[in-house]
From TrEMBL:
This is Probable transaldolase. InterPro entries: Aldolase_TIM (IPR013785), TAL/FSA (IPR001585), Transaldolase_3B (IPR022999), Transaldolase_3B/F6P_aldolase (IPR004731), Transaldolase_AS (IPR018225), TSA/FSA_arc/bac (IPR033919). The active site is at K83. Keywords: Cytoplasm, Pentose shunt, Schiff base, Transferase. PROSITE patterns: TRANSALDOLASE_1 (PS01054).
Length: 218
């Protein structure tokens, strides 16, 4: 499973990328707004930190403008993945960009049928939003499972299932169990994933016992 981090905070990206655990980054207009920076500047900077796919979302909703914006974003760096919304103009934009060799992440996916359309449009990634479905009382993970099993029926679909709107570590475990190709996680969730009280307790004991030996490895 690949891990993308879901943030436009360059300091966070730099710190987490240094762990070697980050395969890509996703941003969206809300995250760009939170960063307080210009999208072209921040996306270029992120692309230079993480070599994997960096999702940058268009700001328009009509085909012509989305296509022009997508081409501009894609021209920034080879590792940009253009993010478009799951609408007919978005899918049309996806098809044209994919035919031009640009990776596209079709976002705001909330149903299996929407995911099938994204795959048919040549998307590199489709992003089902797990947490936002949970928020309205639907099972976001059920959607991940449905999409993974549908895509498995059609080997010609090369679209990767990118579990998005991840809110806590259990979402990551479940997405991995179901076979999602990628999970995009907020930095806080990635940090939570490493934690376990028995790890801390065990380490404290080992350190205390190691001190008693009076040895040094270096
Ligand atoms: C990822 O591509 C999405 O933009 C993101 O995961 C949305 O998460 P949210 O529902 O927590 O805003």
């Amino acid at each position: 499973m690949k891990f993308f981090i879901d943030t436009a905070d360059v300091a966070e990206i730099r710190e987490l990328a240094a762990t070697g655990l980050v395969d890509g980054v996703t941003t969206n207009p809300s995250l760009i707004a939170k960063s307080g920076r210009k999208i072209l500047d921040v996306i270029a900077e992120i692309c230079d930190i993480v070599p994997g796919p960096i999702s940058a979302e268009v700001g328009a909703t009509d085909f012509d403008t989305m296509l022009a914006e997508g081409r501009k974003l894609a021209a920034l760096r080879p590792n940009v993945a253009v993010k478009v919304p799951l609408t007919f103009p978005g899918l049309k934009t996806c098809k044209v960009l994919a035919d031009e060799g640009v990776r596209v992440n079709v976002t705001l996916c909330f149903s299996a049928n929407q995911a099938i359309l994204a795959a048919k449009a040549g998307a590199a990634f489709v992003s089902p939003f797990v947490g936002r479905l949970d928020d309205i009382g639907q099972d976001g993970m059920e959607l991940i499972g449905d999409i993974v099993s549908i895509f498995d029926n059609y080997p010609a679909f090369t679209t990767e299932v990118l579990a998005a709107s991840i809110r806590h570590p259990m979402h990551v475990t479940e997405a991995a169990r179901l076979g999602a190709h990628v999970a995009t996680v907020p930095p806080s969730v990635l940090r939570q994933m490493v934690q376990h009280p028995l790890t801390d307790k065990g380490l404290a004991t080992f350190l205390a016992d190691w001190q008693k030996t009076g040895q040094a490895i270096l």
